[in-house]
């Protein structure tokens, strides 16, 4: 290790952010990485642990070789650091921006100190690699003569496609939308992930020989059976888009939308992509976001940038414990503590233990909601309405961000005759192989809604399984 005492000498220092008053005026990214000498000091804090929990089962799902590229960054060997990073992660520029960094909560320093700034260093390495021209297309040296269809161009589908192409297979990615990227393009706001970053990577994939077919929904535009006959293997990577609904009185009123509808439309508007649905905008409206997770937070930040008059965010679960220390109270596990995102810092009002009773409308459009406060107790926790706690809130726009229940059931799965599990996702025996020979699945379509980093990992593993099916080897 280049600096054995680095963790004692240097304090944690993360990127700077554009002031709130400036950044809410646009949808551009607003983080600024430290200078390289600062990043080298931050990398020097890595302890070169005997057991590096950062890339164990508690940390990075990709198994990134974090101590290795931390050491290389400290020694100013940036190209070598990029080569280590690229060995395990197809898209560090995505995870370096949107991953919640379980590697950092599992960092050994997190036992009693601030963890290494792993995600920041990862982002710095890949951006430096792009600047220096080290990220080049890597087309296969030999062709296998096998053809693979990948359905869905989100992180799982793209990672699998790249791995399969580099193994020598002909790969075609089918995407029902007009632009590629799936969740990366339509589900994540630009201020967290600029779509130029997505396009930059897709250009590399195209240069490696991957064929992309957009505006093509398998099961409707092309039958799944035809596709199955035309390719040697198929990978289902269509995500988990069946949103959890809120079956209360007044749900049918105009002005109540699923969060992904809203975020997708906001991203399309910024890119000039046409859409047929009625416009959903927060300008001059009182906005209520129901759901306290990352998707809800993205809705808050988007609504503020669109000029909302006021933004509320309600969560049915109790408020997590507040934790002011820099170390992880549940090391090496992901701690259940209150988290405040950059969007929460920009404005709005958050409340917990709130149950939605009904919505009221005026002229067919939502005008208010009726809510009650909850008390949680017992193990497992049970909720109970607090007597006389009911209240009404005037709202103009309601965004439902309560998560996703399973993969969308439709013509694709029906035509393939795929077996589903008890949750409604695609059933597998091993995480990747479906009930139909030659048909595989990756990402949220199998696991349920999860992290981008897990989707990339799942796509890579699915590609390995497909290659074993096609060629009998990894």
How would you describe this protein?
It is a single chain. The chain has about 475 residues and is α/β, with parallel strands linked by helices. It has three domains: about 5-130, Alpha-helical ferredoxin (Fumarate Reductase Iron-sulfur Protein, Chain B, domain 2); about 145-240 and about 405-470, FAD/NAD(P)-binding domain (3-Layer(bba) Sandwich); about 245-400, FAD/NAD(P)-binding domain. The protein has helices spanning about 5-10, 20-25, 35-45, 65-75, 80-90, 90-100, 100-105, 120-130, 155-165, 185, 195-205, 225-230, 260-270, 295-305, 340-345, 410-415, 445, 450-470; strands at about 15, 30, 145-150, 170-175, 210-215, 235, 240-245, 255-260, 285-290, 310-315, 350, 355-360, 365-375, 380-385, 390-395, 395-400, 405, 440. The strands form five sheets. A five-stranded parallel beta sheet has the order 5-4-3-6-18, sandwiched between helices. It has a five-stranded parallel beta sheet with strand order 8-16-9-10-11. Helix 3 (about 35-45) crosses helix 8, helix 5 packs across helix 8 and helix 6 (about 90-100) runs antiparallel to helix 8. It is globular, with a radius of gyration of 23 Å.
């Amino acid at each position: 290790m280049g600096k054995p005492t680095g963790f004692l000498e240097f304090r944690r220092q993360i990127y700077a952010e554009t002031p709130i008053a400036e950044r809410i005026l646009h949808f551009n990214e607003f983080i600024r990485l430290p200078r390289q000498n600062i990043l080298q000091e931050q990398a020097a804090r890595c302890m070169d642990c005997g057991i590096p929990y950062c890339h164990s089962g508690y940390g990075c799902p990709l198994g990134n070789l974090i101590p290795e590229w931390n050491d290389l960054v400290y020694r100013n060997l940036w190209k070598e650091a990029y080569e280590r990073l690229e060995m395990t992660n197809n898209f560090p520029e995505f995870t370096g921006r949107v991953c919640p960094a379980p590697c950092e909560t599992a960092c050994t320093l997190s036992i009693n100190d601030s963890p290494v700034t792993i995600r920041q260093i990862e982002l710095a390495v890949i951006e430096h690699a792009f600047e220096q021209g080290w990220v080049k297309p890597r087309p296969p040296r030999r062709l296998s003569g096998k053809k693979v269809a990948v359905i869905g161009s989100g992180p799982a589908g793209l990672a699998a496609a790249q791995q399969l192409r580099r193994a020598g297979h002909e790969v075609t990615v089918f995407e029902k939308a007009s632009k590629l990227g799936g969740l990366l393009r339509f589900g994540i706001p630009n201020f967290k992930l600029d779509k130029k970053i997505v396009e930059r990577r897709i250009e590399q994939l195209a240069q490696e020989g991957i064929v992309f077919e957009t505006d093509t929904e398998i099961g409707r535009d092309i039958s799944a059976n035809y596709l199955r006959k035309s390719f040697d293997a198929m990978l289902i990577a269509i995500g988990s888009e069946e949103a959890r609904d809120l079956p209360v009185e007044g749900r049918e009123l105009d002005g109540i939308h699923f969060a992904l509808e809203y975020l997708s439309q906001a991203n399309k508007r910024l890119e000039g992509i046409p859409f047929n649905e009625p416009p959903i905008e927060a300008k001059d409206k009182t906005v209520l976001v129901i759901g306290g997770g990352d998707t809800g937070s993205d809705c808050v930040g988007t609504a503020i940038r669109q000029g909302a008059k006021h933004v509320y965010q309600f969560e049915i679960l109790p408020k997590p414990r507040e934790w002011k220390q820099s170390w992880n109270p549940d090391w090496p596990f992901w701690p259940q503590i209150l988290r405040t995102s950059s969007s929460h810092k920009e404005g709005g009002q958050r409340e917990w233990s709130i149950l939605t009773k009904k919505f009221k409308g005026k002229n067919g459009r939502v005008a208010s909601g009726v809510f009650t406060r909850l008390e949680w107790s017992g193990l497992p926790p049970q909720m109970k309405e607090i007597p006389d706690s009911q209240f009404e809130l005037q709202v103009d726009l309601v965004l439902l961000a309560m998560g996703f229940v399973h993969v969308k059931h439709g013509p694709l799965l029906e035509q393939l005759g795929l077996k589903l599990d008890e949750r409604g996702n695609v059933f597998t025996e091993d995480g990747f192989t479906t009930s139909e020979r030659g048909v595989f699945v990756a990402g949220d379509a199998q696991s349920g809604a999860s992290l981008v980093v897990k989707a990339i990992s799942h796509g890579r593993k699915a590609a390995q399984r497909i290659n074993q099916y096609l060629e009998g080897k990894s």
